[in-house]
Amino acid sequence: MDQSRISILLVDDHEVVRAGFKILLSAQPFIGEIRDVNRGELVAQEYARMQPDVVVMDLSMPGIGGLETIRRLCKQAPDAVVLVYSIHDEFVYVERALQAGARGYVSKNSAAEMLAEAVRTVAQGKRYIEQQLMPEVSDVRHSDIESYREVVDLLSPREFDVFCRLASGMTTHEAASDLCLGYKTVANYNTKIKSKLRVNTAAELANIAVVLGIVKP
C-alpha cells in the first residue's frame, strides 16, 4: 500500500454509486488504494484486513445500517476515521453520525470536489462538516436544539433508523422490508420508540420528526 497517499474503504449498498465514487476519487493525486463493500456487516472484517486511512460511509443501507456500523467500527477500532457521505442533509443526522464516531459529514447533494476535499481533511485528523448542513444559530432556538438532542440521545442507532422510517409515513411492514428486518422485530422497536418518546400514535412520531428536521413539514 502506498503510504504517501490516502487509502479508502467505500461502504454503500448501490454498485453504481460505489463505481462512481471510485472514478471520482481515483482521479485525485492524493488518493491511493480504494476498496468497497456493499453492507455494514462486512465493514469490520474488511477494515481489519485493509486498515484504510478513511472509511467513506453511506447511512441508508439494508441490514445494520450506517449509524450502527459506525458505532461498531469505532468501538472495534477507536482510531478509525469515518466520513459520512449521505443523501440525508438534515442536521440531526450529522449530529447522530458524530455521536456514533464519524469525523466528517458531506451530503450527496454537494459538489463532487467537496467529497475529495473532505477525505483529505479527515485523513489529516481534522473534522469536516459541510457548511450547508450546519444550522444557522439565528434560525434555531436553543430550546429546539436541546429538545432534539434529548430525543436523539434516547434512541439506539437501530431505533433511530426505525423511527425515521415510521415518522416519514412508512408502515411497519414497509420499514421492516426496507431495513431487512422481520415484521415483529420492527413492531417491537416501534413500541419501544413510542415508549421512550412518550407518544402513542404515528402522527405524534411524525410531529417529532418535523421538529427535528428529519421530515419536511
UniProtKB/TrEMBL annotation:
Occurrences of domain Response regulatory (ranges): 7-123
GO function term, MF aspect, one: DNA binding
CDD domains: REC_NarL-like (cd17535)
Tree of life domain: Bacteria
Domain called HTH luxR-type: residue spans: 148-213
Any Pfam family hit: Response_reg
Keywords: DNA-binding, Phosphoprotein
Residue list for modification 4-aspartylphosphate: D58
PROSITE patterns: HTH_LUXR_2, RESPONSE_REGULATORY
Name of the protein in its database record: Response regulator transcription factor
Source species: Porticoccus litoralis
Lineage of the species this protein comes from: Bacteria, Pseudomonadati, Pseudomonadota, Gammaproteobacteria, Cellvibrionales
